[in-house]
Design a protein that fits this description.
The complex is a heterodimer of chains A (639) and B (146).
Chain A lengths: L2 H16 L5 E5 L2 H5 L2 H14 L5 E5 L11 E4 L5 E4 L7 H10 L8 E5 L35 H6 L4 H6 L4 H11 L11 H10 L6 E6 L8 H8 L1 H15 L3 E6 L4 H16 L15 E6 L9 H8 L23 E5 H12 L2 H5 L9 E8 L5 E6 L4 H8 L9 E6 L5 E4 L9 H6 L8 E6 L4 H15 L5 H19 L6 H14 L4 H5 L2 H20 L12 E4 L9 H5 L5 E2 L7 E2 L9 H5 L7 E4 L21
Parallel strand pairs in A: 1-2, 6-7, 6-9, 7-8, 10-14
Antiparallel strand pairs in A: 1-3, 3-4, 4-5, 10-11, 12-13, 12-14, 15-18, 16-17
Helix pairs in contact in A: 7-8, 7-10, 9-10, 9-11, 10-13, 17-18, 17-21, 18-19, 19-21
Chain B lengths: L9 H12 L4 H11 L3 H8 L13 E6 L2 H5 L2 H12 L12 E6 L11 E3 L2 E3 L4 H14 L4
Parallel strand pairs in B: 1-2
Antiparallel strand pairs in B: 1-3, 3-4
Helix pairs in contact in B: 1-2, 5-6
Classes of the chains: A alpha/beta (639), B alpha+beta (146).
Chain lengths: 639, 146
C-alpha cells in the first residue's frame, strides 16, 4: 500500500467511528487510570451494555492529564462533543448508561468537561477548565483522544505524514527544519537537537544507531510514561525521521522495566507499523530501511545518562565514560549514535508534520516550543501538563495546579528531580525556560515538578534527593561516590538532630567538590538540591542545627506527638490504632502518649476525629499534658 | 533459548531468567555463563549493578513501596514503615512463610496519586498507614485470588 492508500483507509475507519450512529465510550486506561480502578470500570461498562443489549463502541484511550480526576470515562453521541465524566466507579456506570445513553440526559452534575467541537449546556469545554486554559498541547495532543493501540487513529489524525514528508526531503533539509524549530533536548540538558543530529549525520561510517531514551528514572516524573502509553506512534515516527536524517539503520528504545504498560503498547505499535510497511526494509517503498528493538532497563538511574545507557545496551555495568569521543562519533558498539528523549522525538514528529517555523512560534527566544511537566506533590490538581516555554511558574502552580490544598502556604517548587533545585516563592514569577531556571539554581530537567507546602521540610527534601543520588551513584568517580556519601551523612545528622555548627558550610564545600569532580551529570548535578535549599532556605537548616527544631514538623527525631487534654474526648480511637500501644487512656478518660514508646508514625493524628482535633504534632515545644489519664473535663480543674 | 550468543543479550537473558524463577539462582547464572561464554564473576558484576535483579527467592507477593519525590513529600516513608510493621520484615526481606517480600522503588510514575504501593503489578494509590494495613490484609486472606 502507498502512504496515500494507508491514509485513506485510516481516515475512513476514523470517520466511520467518529460519525457512528452508535454511542462511543472512551475509557482512560493509562497507568494513572488503572491505579484508580479504570479496568474495573471498563469491565463494568462491557457487562452493562451487553446485558442491556446496547450497541456501542467501547475503546481504551490514554491519559488526558487530569490524574487526580481518574478514572475518566467519556461518552459521545453522534454530532456532539465527548462528555468526560470524572471519578467514575463501577457502581455509577449503570446510572451513566441509563441517563445519557438511554435517556439523553448528559448529567452535567457528574461531568468534568466536553472534549471536541460543539457545546452541551452546563458543561464547560476541556480548554475552558482552569487546568487546561494556559496549556498548549503539542507532544500530548493525541493523549486521551485516540486509541493508542490503533495505528489508524494516529494516521487519521495526521500521523506519519511527517515521515512521508521527510522521505521526500534530503537529510540536510530535515536537519535544517529541526534547526528552524529551535528544538532543544527535552531530557533535561537542553542541547540543540539539530546540532546533535548534524554531528551524527556528519560522522563517518555506514552503520549508525538511534536510541530513544525512555529510561525516565527521575523520581517524580511520569511525562514519558504517559506519552508512551497514550500515543506511542508519535514517538516512533520521530525516531524514523531522525534515523532517516542521520542515516541510521537500527534503533533502540531503552525503556524502564517499571513501565510494563508503556512497553506493551510500544510492542503493539511496532507490530502495527510493520503491517503497514512503516518499519523494516524499504519503508513506504523508499530506499530507507530501519529496524527498532525494545530494551528493558534494569533499574539503574544512571543509565539515563547517554554513555551509561550505551554500556548497558552492550550488556555491561551501566557506568558512564569520559567524552570525547561523543556518542555522535563513537557510541553503541563504537558506531555513531544519536540519543534523544521520548518527548524530543514526539516534537520531531510534530515539527515535520507542520513546520519548524510553526513550532518556533511558541516559547521564548532561546527556548522554543512547549514542555510537558508532571505536576505533583502538594498541589490541588495533579497531573500531566504541557505549557509553552516562558510561562511563569506561578501560572503553573496556581492557575493550572489550583494552588496548595487545605489552605496551606506555598513553600517551594522542585524542578528537575535529583539534578534540579527547589525554587521558593520569590522565584514564582520567573519564566520557565532553560536559562531562567538555571540562573535560579535549578534545571528544566525532564519535567518533574513537585510542589512543596509549609509541611515539607526543605532539609529533609535535600536529604531525600541525596539519599537517591548517593544510592544511584555508579561509584566510578571518587567525589561522587564518597562525596555524596559524606553529604548524606551530614544531612542525616542535621535532620536527626545531631547537626553541628559548621555543617552547613562544610556541605557547601562538598557540593563544589562533587560538582567539579564528577564525570557525568549525575554527580555534576547531585548537589543542586542541597545548594538551592541552602541558598533559599538557610534559616530552616539553622533551626535544625542550632535549635534542634524542624519548622515543618517532618524530621522524626525533632518532633513529638501529644494529645491535648482540653480537646481529648476520650473516644479510644487513637488508642486502638496506635501500633505500639504507646497511648494509655479509657472511655471518657483523657488519653496520654508515652513519649518513650512513641515511634512518631502519626497514625493518632490521622485517626483523631476532626471534630476533636486533639492530637498535636510539635517541634521545639512541649504542650502541658497530664502524666496519666484523667477523666475528660477534669483537666485544669485539679491542677 | 531464543537468544543469540551475544554479550549484548546478557541483561535481557538475566531478565528472562528472573521472570521464570523469580530470582537469579546460582544455577541460572552458571547456565548463562556457559551459554554466553562469560565468567560467572562477570555476570554477577553486571547483575548486582542493577536494582532489578534479586539473588534470593522472593515471596509469593512482592510489595513495592514507592519512595519517589511525590510519594516522599506525601508521606511515603510512613507507608514504608507501616508495611514493615504489618509484615514484620524490613525492606528487602521476605517473610518466613515466603508469602511476601518487600522492596522500595524509586518511582513508578504514578506521582499524581501519591503515595502509592505496588503489590505485584497492582498499583494502590493515595495510601495511608490504615489503608496499607487493609490492602495487605486482603492479600493475606485471599492469597492468589486477587
Amino acid at each position: 500500500m502507498t502512504f496515500k492508500e494507508i491514509q485513506h483507509h485510516a481516515k475512513a475507519e476514523w470517520e466511520a467511528f467518529a460519525n457512528s450512529e452508535k454511542p462511543r465510550i472512551y475509557v482512560g486506561t493509562a497507568t494513572c487510570g488503572r491505579s484508580s480502578g479504570a479496568l474495573d470500570v471498563l469491565n463494568r461498562i462491557h457487562a452493562e451494555i451487553e446485558q442491556r443489549a446496547i450497541d456501542a463502541h467501547v475503546i481504551e484511550v490514554g491519559c488526558i492529564g487530569c490524574c487526580d480526576a481518574e478514572p475518566l470515562v467519556d461518552i459521545a453521541k453522534r454530532g456532539r462533543p465527548r462528555i468526560c465524566y470524572s471519578h467514575v466507579t463501577p457502581e455509577i456506570v449503570p446510572q451513566l448508561v441509563t441517563d445519557y445513553i438511554v435517556n439523553d440526559n448528559p448529567r452535567p452534575d457528574l461531568a468534568l468537561c466536553t472534549i471536541g467541537q460543539g457545546e452541551i449546556d452546563g458543561i464547560p469545554n476541556l480548554f475552558a477548565l482552569p487546568m487546561f486554559k494556559p496549556q498548549v498541547r503539542i507532544a500530548l495532543r493525541n493523549c486521551g483522544y485516540i486509541d493508542p493501540g490503533n495505528i489508524n487513529h494516529y494516521i487519521a489524525n495526521g500521523g506519519y505524514s511527517g515521515l512521508f514528508k521527510a522521505l521526500k526531503m534530503t537529510p540536510e533539509e530535515i536537519i535544517g527544519e529541526i534547526g528552524k524549530s529551535g528544538l532543544r533536548g527535552r531530557g533535561g540538558a537542553g542541547f540543540p537537537t539539530a546540532t546533535k543530529w548534524r554531528f551524527c549525520h556528519d560522522a563517518p561510517g555506514t552503520e549508525k544507531y538511534i536510541i530513544c531514551n525512555a529510561d525516565e528514572g527521575d523520581p517524580g516524573a511520569f511525562m514519558n510514561r504517559s506519552l508512551l502509553e497514550s500515543d506511542p506512534h508519535f514517538v516512533l515516527e520521530g525516531m524514523l525521521i531522525g534515523a532517516y536524517a542521520i542515516g541510521a539503520t537500527s534503533g533502540y528504545i531503552y525503556c524502564r522495566a517499571e513501565y510494563p504498560l508503556a512497553l506493551e503498547r510500544l510492542r503493539i505499535a511496532l507490530n502495527r507499523m510493520q503491517d503497514y510497511g512503516l518499519l523494516g526494509d524499504n519503508i513506504l517503498g523508499s530506499n530507507f530501511s530501519f529496524h527498532i528493538e525494545i530494551e528493558e532497563g534494569a533499574g539503574a538511574f544512571v543509565c539515563g545518562e547517554e554513555t551509561a545507557m550505551i554500556r548497558s545496551l552492550e550488556g555491561k555495568r551501566g557506568m558512564p565514560y569520559a567524552r570525547p569521543p561523543f556518542p555522535a562519533t563513537s557510541g553503541l558498539r563504537g558506531k555513531p549514535t544519536n540519543i534523544n528523549n521520548v518527548e524530543t522525538w514526539a516534537n520531531v514528529s510534530a515539527i515535520l508534520q507542520k513546520s519548524g517555523e510553526w513550532f518556533a512560534g511558541y516559547g521564548t527566544e532561546r527556548s522554543k516550543g512547549t514542555k510537558t511537566f508532571a505536576l505533583a506533590g502538594k498541589v490541588v490538581r495533579t497531573g500531566l501538563i504541557e505549557v509553552p516555554m516562558g510561562i511563569a511558574l506561578r501560572q503553573i502552580v496556581y492557575d493550572i495546579g489550583g494552588g496548595i490544598p487545605d489552605g496551606k502556604e506555598f513553600k517551594a517548587v522542585q524542578t528537575g528531580g535529583p539534578s534540579g533545585g527547589c525554587l521558593p516563592a520569590s522565584t514564582l514569577d520567573i519564566p520557565v525556560d532553560y536559562e531562567h531556571l538555571a540562573a535560579a539554581g535549578s534545571i528544566m530537567g525532564s519535567g518533574g515538578m513537585i510542589v512543596a507546602d509549609s509541611e515539607t521540610c526543605m532539609v529533609d527534601l535535600a536529604r531525600y534527593f541525596l539519599s537517591f543520588t548517593q544510592a544511584e551513584s555508579c561509584g566510578e568517580c571518587v567525589l561522587c561516590r564518597e562525596g555524596t556519601m559524606q553529604m548524606l551523612e551530614i544531612l542525616t545528622d542535621i535532620t536527626g538532630g545531631s547537626g553541628k555548627p559548621g555543617d552547613i558550610d562544610l556541605l557547601l564545600e562538598l557540593c563544589e567538590a562533587v560538582k567539579s569532580g564528577s564525570l557525568c551529570a549525575l554527580g555534576g548535578t547531585a548537589p543542586n538540591p542541597v545548594l538551592t535549599t541552602i541558598r533559599y532556605f538557610r534559616e530552616e537548616y539553622e533551626a535544625h542545627v542550632n535549635e534542634k527544631r524542624c519548622p515543618a514538623r517532618v524530621c522524626k527525631n525533632l518532633i513529638s506527638f501529644y494529645i491535648l487534654p482540653e480537646k481529648c474526648a476520650g473516644c479510644l480511637i487513637c488508642m486502638r490504632n496506635c501500633p505500639v500501644d504507646a497511648i494509655t487512656g479509657g472511655k471518657r478518660m483523657i488519653h496520654v502518649i508515652d513519649q518513650h514508646k512513641c515511634i512518631k508514625c502519626g497514625i493518632c493524628l490521622d485517626v483523631c476525629p476532626s471534630r476533636f482535633n486533639a492530637v498535636a504534632k510539635v517541634s521545639g515545644e512541649q504542650p502541658l499534658t497530664p502524666e496519666d489519664p484523667i477523666p475528660v473535663g477534669s483537666w485544669g480543674k485539679t491542677s | 533459548m531464543q537468544f543469540m550468543k551475544d554479550r549484548a543479550n546478557l541483561i535481557p537473558i538475566l531478565q528472562k531468567a528472573q521472570e521464570a524463577e523469580g530470582y537469579l539462582s546460582p544455577q541460572a547464572i552458571a547456565e548463562i555463563s556457559q551459554f554466553l561464554d562469560i565468567s560467572e564473576n562477570d555476570i554477577y558484576s553486571v547483575a548486582t549493578f542493577y536494582a532489578l535483579f534479586r539473588f534470593t527467592r522472593p515471596g509469593d507477593h512482592i510489595v513495592k513501596v514507592c519512595l519517589g519525590t511525590a510519594c516522599h513529600v506525601r508521606g511515603g516513608e510512613r507507608i514504608l514503615e507501616s508495611v514493615e510493621r504489618e509484615l514484620n520484615i524490613r525492606c528487602g526481606q521476605t517473610t518466613d512463610d515466603f508469602k511476601f517480600s518487600m522492596e522500595r522503588v524509586a518511582c513508578v510514575g504514578c506521582c499524581a496519586l501519591a503515595p502509592v504501593v505496588l503489590v505485584d503489578q497492582d498499583v494502590h494509590s493515595k495510601m495511608t498507614p490504615a489503608k496499607a494495613k487493609e490492602v495487605l490484609a486482603r492479600y493475606k486472606t485471599h492469597g492468589e485470588d486477587i
